[in-house]
């Protein structure tokens, strides 16, 4: 088999295998984290009328001509509040008490702030008249009916949900969440962390991977832990028949007890590629498996060390799931940040150092071992160190991938 692939080539090849997007209709208020499948156009205009942006007094359009002294007076003839507009039109020299979000009365074109107003009984005066349009939200300034407000491929977060509802939609068409199974394997793994015998450790990778997928709306089916035994692996794989994507952890290398590749081949899977030139995470495996009357399954075999499993899930599994959900930009984005410390030259492989943001600078975690969960739990980003990179001095910029945005 050929040598390890570069990160970008491996990601490109994996995303090309993404299961086809399935579309379903959901309530907008239940669409958080989902990806919009079709463009969304406004079913109404926002604001639906000229509205006041502040509490105060709506003045008639002849305010300048009416007040030679620049202070009024105006006669207060009523009130307009949010949800209860003033019923008439303003005549010369008239004003209406108005609240934020209330409809501007017909004949009014500006709002005098209440803190700039002097009121005695029904007479209003001001030290200075606001110009036309001041403190007024014009009809349709946010969006007009028929305008495209969200594009297909947009991830629906809190602001996008608010926009869709404001645009008059109770439901929307989104990409269905792919069915995902997670299988962790190893003789040493124990499902119950309180019952570890000699030579055993808690099986933490399965729950970790499921938690990484959860923000995308995925409820992964957990199939492990499974012993390093061909029959046990075959039984576990048989439970993944309905999964669009199968994520495995452990057993993907070529040691005496690494049986996953052979088990997958016996199950009918074809290896698409194996090994990526990154650290941690070199022994990444990607395979596909044809199914009758269904699109091919995609299998991503992650390394068993927990940090390696986490980093490769971040770089490969999460983008694959986003692609299967129709995301316009499934891959994570890096940013440039200054390092707080000197960094040594890059090694033979591209390395992702667990690190912590401290203000506007980044500091690598003291421990970089691929089994160190304490360091991983304390990290909020990855420093991207290219293979063979020159040393970096404190204060220089490095490329960083935020783990908070995934």
Automatic annotation (TrEMBL):
Keyword Electron transport: no
Similarity comment: Belongs to the MoeA family.
UniProt entry tagged with the keyword Metal-binding: yes
Cofactor(s) demanded: Mg(2+)
GO annotation terms (biological process): Mo-molybdopterin cofactor biosynthetic process
Domain of life: Bacteria
Enzyme type, top EC level: transferase
InterPro entries: MoaB/Mog-like_dom_sf, MoaB/Mog_dom, MoCF_biosynth_CS, MoeA-like, MoeA_C_domain_IV, MoeA_C_domain_IV_sf, MoeA_linker/N, MoeA_linker/N_sf
UniProt-recorded Gene Ontology molecular function terms: metal ion binding; molybdopterin molybdotransferase activity
Assigned keywords, A-Z: Magnesium, Metal-binding, Molybdenum, Molybdenum cofactor biosynthesis, Transferase
Protein name: Molybdopterin molybdenumtransferase
Cross-referenced PANTHER family: GEPHYRIN (PTHR10192:SF5), MOLYBDOPTERIN BIOSYNTHESIS PROTEIN (PTHR10192)
Gene Ontology cellular component terms for the protein in this record: cytosol
Reactions catalysed according to its record: adenylyl-molybdopterin + molybdate = Mo-molybdopterin + AMP + H(+)
SUPFAM superfamilies per UniProt: MoeA C-terminal domain-like (SSF63867), MoeA N-terminal region -like (SSF63882), Molybdenum cofactor biosynthesis proteins (SSF53218)
EC number: 2.10.1.1
Involved pathway(s): Cofactor biosynthesis; molybdopterin biosynthesis
């Amino acid at each position: 088999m050929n040598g390890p692939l570069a990160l970008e080539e491996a990601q490109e090849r994996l995303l090309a295998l993404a299961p086809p997007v399935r579309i379903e209709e959901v309530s907008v208020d239940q669409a958080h984290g989902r990806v919009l499948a079709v463009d969304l156009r406004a079913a109404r205009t926002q604001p639906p009328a000229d509205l006041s942006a502040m509490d105060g007094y709506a003045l008639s359009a002849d305010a300048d001509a009416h007040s030679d002294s620049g202070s009024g007076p105006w006669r207060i003839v009523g009130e307009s509040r949010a949800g209860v507009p003033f019923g008439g039109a303003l005549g010369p020299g008239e004003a209406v008490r108005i609240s934020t979000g209330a409809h501007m009365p017909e004949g009014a074109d500006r709002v005098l702030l209440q803190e700039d107003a002097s009121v005695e009984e029904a007479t209003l005066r001001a030290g200075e008249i606001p110009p036309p349009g001041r403190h007024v939200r014009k009809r349709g300034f946010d969006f007009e009916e028929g305008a495209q407000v969200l594009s297909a491929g947009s991830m629906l977060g809190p602001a996008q949900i608010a926009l869709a509802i404001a645009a008059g939609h109770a439901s929307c068409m989104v990409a269905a969440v792919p069915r995902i199974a997670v299988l962790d394997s190893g003789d040493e793994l124990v499902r119950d962390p309180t019952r570890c015998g000699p030579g055993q450790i808690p099986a933490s990778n399965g729950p970790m991977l499921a938690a990484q997928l959860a923000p995308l709306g995925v409820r992964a089916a957990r199939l492990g832990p499974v012993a390093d035994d061909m029959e046990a692996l075959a039984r576990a794989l048989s439970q993944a028949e309905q999964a669009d994507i199968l994520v495995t952890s452990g057993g993907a290398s070529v040691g005496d007890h690494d049986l996953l590749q052979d088990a997958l081949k016996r199950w009918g899977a074809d290896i698409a590629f194996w090994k990526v030139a990154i650290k941690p995470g070199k022994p990444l495996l990607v395979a596909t498996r044809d199914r009758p009357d269904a699109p091919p399954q995609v299998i991503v075999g992650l390394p068993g060390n927990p940090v390696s499993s986490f980093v490769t899930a971040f770089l490969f599994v999460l983008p694959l799931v986003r692609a299967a959900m129709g995301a316009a930009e499934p891959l994570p984005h890096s940013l440039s940040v200054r390092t707080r410390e000197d960094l040594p030259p890059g090694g033979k492989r591209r390395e992702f150092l667990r690190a912590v943001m401290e203000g506007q600078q980044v500091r690598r975690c003291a421990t970089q071992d691929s089994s160190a969960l304490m360091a991983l739990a304390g990290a909020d980003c990855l420093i991207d160190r290219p293979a063979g990179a020159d040393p970096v001095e404190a204060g220089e910029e490095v490329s960083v991938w935020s783990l908070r945005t995934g």
